[in-house]
Amino acid sequence: MENGFKGYHPISNLIFFLSIVVFGMLFKHPVTLVVCFIAALCYYIRLCRRAAVKSFLTFIFPMLLFVLIINGLFAHYGTTPLLTLPDGNKMTLEAVVYGFVLGVATVSIIMWFFCYSEVVTTDKFMCVFGKIMPAGALVISMALRFVPMYKNRLHTIAEAQKGIGRDYRQGNIIERIRNGGKIISILITWSLENAVETSDSMKARGYGMKGRQSYSKFRMSKRDVVSIMIVLLLDVILTIGCIKKSLYCIYNPYIVINPSADFGKTYFVNELNLTLNPVSAFGIVTIISFTLLCFLPLIIDLKEDIKWNRLKSKI
Amino acid sequence: MRKRIISILILCLLIPAVVIAGFFLAKGKQYYLVSLLVIAISILPFMLSLERKKLQLRELVIISSVIAISVASRAAFFYLPNIKPMCAILIIAAISFGAEFGFTCGALSMLLSNFIYGQGMWTPFQMLAMGVTVFVCALIFRTFRIKNRFILGIVSGILCFALYGIIVDLSSVFMMVSEYNLRSVLSIYASGFPFNIIHGLTTGICVTLFEPSVSEKLERIKQKYGLFGEK
């Protein structure tokens, strides 16, 4: 039994990840970016522990640098030159800042996808996918079982071929490819006939007849419904925020954070062509909803951890 | 035939509609989301044809078997880690079983291999890229009835390098580039170039080397059980 957000119903998980990816791409406000990044990193580290830290240092961080460098060097829009590059073009503040914005957004979404792979396991995906497309789900779930089986068969064939000097470890590159091809060719003979027999056997047992149902191990309980409702409610607020442009920001040709308002104090930094407008009331609501959405799985996990510790101390 | 014309018409109208709507609604800022929608619309008809066509059970199982073989085939080249014969096997299978079969298999096998190696925002792009590459190769080879294995190898290698590389790297372009000038886009493609050239080259070599024996077996299966339109 999985605990925390991982143990929730697949539909609840999928709706959460769908909305986080969509809104993570739509919002380019600095606050939401930072929130999204921190939440993704925390949840990723919670799910994968040490592997998450390792992949952050070796994959995620270099990627962030790559995006930053590409945008800093090759994009020349904006009005605030920082320095002149050797080729005569100017490196602008706007391009560097927007490169950073894009990089953080990209990296956060990649981390959310890593979390997705951990949380939405194959059986969960098949549970939802099977309701929409039964034939497609059948094809994928059979293929999922075939892959390890065929890998074992490949190994068996390779061992036999090794005896006559045709293993994939023997010979030069072209010979190795040719031997590999031979092994695959043998696998195809072995497997396709087998597959047809499997399908005949399935038919004999009544696959595709009327009145047959499929088994699903996931049950929708009260907490799943509640979590789905919360995510949908937050989605509605965030969509309104998107339409009303309450978190409006532009980075080209100069940087403006937040929509212009008739209240509060607006800060200008003239040397950097930077405008900082005050956050509107609905802007604050949008930011809070986005923060709640991002931290939802962590909140659920934390709640269950606290509950578990309290129960444990009573025993 | 009429159904096919209708579906092509829907595709031709829906994709520009989505692109234009996305352009006006998001003021040309959300290239990635719009492209995801376009991909979903273009993959959907093939997936639905799987549901609606009332394929024989045998054909469904053959599809999943070919997908599994193409994913597992990586294990046969355990000592040559750069060689991924997936594309080659799918192309050979699609030459025997049909171009639409190729698109479905290509898209699903990328989905399946990402179940094993990790899903990401590149998954839809990879699905579309593999589907389109296999579809185009099979369409060319089947309509012109090309039998020469060297021509097959060269053409599929070039198409694999060009089509698959361009579509997959497009996902990085949409995610990472803020200004769409030639140099920033080229820098992304340049960083993906070595992988794509190796992928194209090995696909070409694999198709040339495997084609005779593998397609003979597939044809035999097709005739023996009367699959995919064979009487």
Brief summary of the model shown:
Chain A has 315 residues and is mainly alpha-helical. Chain A has 9 helices and 6 strands. Chain A is 69% helix and 6% strand.
Verbal overview:
The complex is a heterodimer of chains A (315) and B (231). With 315 residues, chain A is mainly alpha-helical. Chain A has 2 domains: 4-124 and 221-314, no CATH class; 132-204. Chain A has 9 helices and 6 strands, in the order H-H-H-E-E-H-H-H-H-H-E-E-E-E-H. Chain A has helices at residues 10-26, 30-48, 50-74, 93-119, 122-132, 134-162, 173-204, 222-244, 281-314; strands at residues 81-84, 90-92, 249-250, 255-257, 267-269, 274-276. In chain A, the strands form 2 sheets. Chain A has a 4-stranded mixed β-sheet, with no helix packed on it. Chain A has a two-stranded antiparallel ribbon with strand order 1-2. By secondary structure, chain B is mostly helical. Helix content of chain B is 81%, strand content 0%. In chain B, helix 2 crosses helix 5, helix 2 crosses helix 6 and helix 7 (149-176) crosses helix 8 (182-225). Chain B folds into 2 domains: 1-54; 56-225, Orthogonal Bundle (Arp2/3 complex 21 kDa subunit ARPC3). Chain B is globular, with a radius of gyration of 18 Å. Chain B is built from 8 helices and no strands. Chain B starts with a helix and ends in a 6-residue tail after the last helix.
